[in-house]
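Crash report, auto-generated. Payload:
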Amino acid sequence: MQFDPTLFLELLFSGLFQGAVYALIGTGLTLIWGTMQVVNFAHCTFMTLAAYITFWLFALFNLDPLISLPAIFALFFLLGFLFEKFSIEPLIGKPREATLLLTLGVSLIIQNAILLVWKANPRIVNPIFTGSLRFYGLNINIPRFISFVIATISALLLHVFLTKTIYGTTIRGTCQNRTAAHLMGINVKMVYAFSFGLGMACAGLAGVLICLFFPIDPFIGDPFIVMTFTVIVMGGLGNYLGAIFSGFILGVIEYFAAYWIGSLLRLTVPLLIFIIVLLLKPKGLFGD
Amino acid sequence: MSLMSKKALTKIHVAIIIVVFVVAALGAYAWVNFFPLGPKENEVRVGVLTPLTGAAAYFGEGQKAMALWMADRINKEGGIKSLGGLKIRVIIADTEGKPEVGKAQASRLITEEKVHVIIGALHSGVTLPAAQEAERYGIPFICETSSHPDLTRQGFKWFFRVWGSDAIFARNYFEFMKWLKETKGYEFRTIAIVAEESLFCVGVATEWEKLNLDSTLGGYQIVANIRHPVSPTDLTTEALALKQANPDIVLLTVTPIPSAILWTQALKQVNFFPKALLTCGGFIFPEYLRSVGADGEYVIGREGWSIDLMEKKPIAKQIAEAFTNETGKDMTVYTTTMHAAFVVLRDALERAGSLEPEKIRQALIETNIPGDKIIPPWQGIKFDATGQNIYAMNFMVQVVKGQWRIIWPKDIATVDVIFPAPSWNERAG
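Recovered output after restart:
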């Protein structure tokens, strides 16, 4: 088969664009796990909720997703903060299944509430920037490109926040040793709520970005669940940089696999790579 | 203890005990025979299996609305007259589009809700196990939409399908292509077959492959044969594969509307549109057109419902207007077939004059409903020995100026087919 550089680049870009979404969802999830060892099963459902709020803002006030993005980010930070304070915090120290079941239950409630309010009709948001850029035979989907840029910048900003600011250092310190952090005078409970809020804000951001290029329905979160968990485990649980890299790697592998091997194996090949990585590095690519 | 021993059983005691036993036994016999256990038969219970959650929930909501609306309509018109005006009570069960859930719900409807008839279950993959449950318990099952050919190849005795089989429908596509070649004079040779990996879509694609082997009808060169997962998050790679293969005609089948939307977006992104895009499944719904807008132009699909039918058939106009006004729901092929299922149910119950399953089954076997009672442009509804409606057929529609218009067969067509479809660049210009 003859090598087609245009096709190769199209697949590479498409994979990177999809990988950016995995990375963003995975970053929020892994941050929550890294800080408080809570598996948030409602993460992708919160992303769906954010997508619907974005749709609502678009349908009612004609607000473009890129304009409503900061508001959704802030709203979901607040939502995550309060959710942690009133639901997760009382369960800290209890068996891990408690938070797992809680988030699973909340996920079901939100999904059905969405179904009740917005019905099952697929909804679409028409952003300002749409269509494809065409040059030298290459087609770049503009909404996917925008979401890639925003997701990448967000992930990098999160990295800067966690490594270069006192708040970020506090979060990382709490991740490493909760008792020591407590003894050093850090308000651990506040760190938990803040981290959860930040993780949820990432989910909110992902929800907005998905609206740019994906028809939304109450179950859009479902196809992302498997890849998101794969991304965070492969990157090393709790390691947000690992999640970002794994997101991109798995996104690109998925697209090349879908084209060269077959669409039905688009997830099989990344998962096979995932297993190989775990066999060689059981704590993930960037695990301690 | 000593007192007890003095009170040994006398003959009188024995006689009293025997009498009590005999009376109790006779009473129990009479109760069971004259006052049967279970709910009193003061209503007709109809179980409706449809997906209310999952990717096909939009279709399920429409079906639920139609089932409740039809039951209400029948009840307001005096219920089932041959049963003394018994009212119909619809019990909706969510299948989630999953075979195991559909089977459990069918079982629950039969054993706990004691339904007299089941209607359902939209997805072929769900209908099969649900119909097996109905078969096991001997409860009539009216299949409204599921079109997998295997459903009527199981030897079921209690299964009656109103809608057609994919074996019939798939053939309609090739007949349409043949007609297109003959009337338009275009010599197209290559086709691509694309299907999501669901029982229904794979069934359709398999029928297409089989029909293509028939040189009198098909005989085209298949340059791409693509299968993809049911709920994809992107279809760019699949669209790129199609573009590379560059077929004249693409035969594409997906069920959920979001997949249809993604396909349209992906084809536009890679800048490829075949001479004719013949679709089956999620494309033919108002929500699809509302979502993709002008990008949906020239897509061709097979239908059981079209707004054009309102001009052709008075019943279609009457039902569609009343249903949409009263429920706010769109008319789709799934609401159309649910309507037909209730027409069949009402007719069978009236003729059966009984709620005994066997009598309802006999009435269903003898069904012969004329075409003017149903919305699709069929001769009517009549079941063959496998439970298949022998009159079910497709018509082909194309998006023309934002509306699905009938293009084939010619006797009911309202517009001329646009072929070959313009490319994306031509449309932009």
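Post-recovery validation: The longest strand of chain B covers residues 43-50.
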